[in-house]
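Input sequence (93 aa), recorded before submission:
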Amino acid sequence: MFNRVNILPAKFQIMSVPEELYNIRFAEYFESIKVLYLTNEKFRSICDDYCTNVVDAQIYKKKFEKNFRRKLECENLSKELEEEILFFVVRST
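Predicted structure, token format:
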């Protein structure tokens, strides 16, 4: 679901820390976060929930931006077509 960053050599690796935890807000505490993530199941669960929500928010942001652009395109086309309709009606009367 989210990407993990390995912090131990491959032969010792049991689990890794999700890359979503590598952000500016947590930078000052990252060493503590790594230890807690690897040793505390409740903390790991909170972090995993956080990471899932970060990924979901990114997905919805992309969808929103795509839908917003499509909405603008439709509104612009509607305005152009309104003008064409009015032009046609005026010309036909």
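Checked by second reader. The two ends are 62 Å apart (CA to CA).
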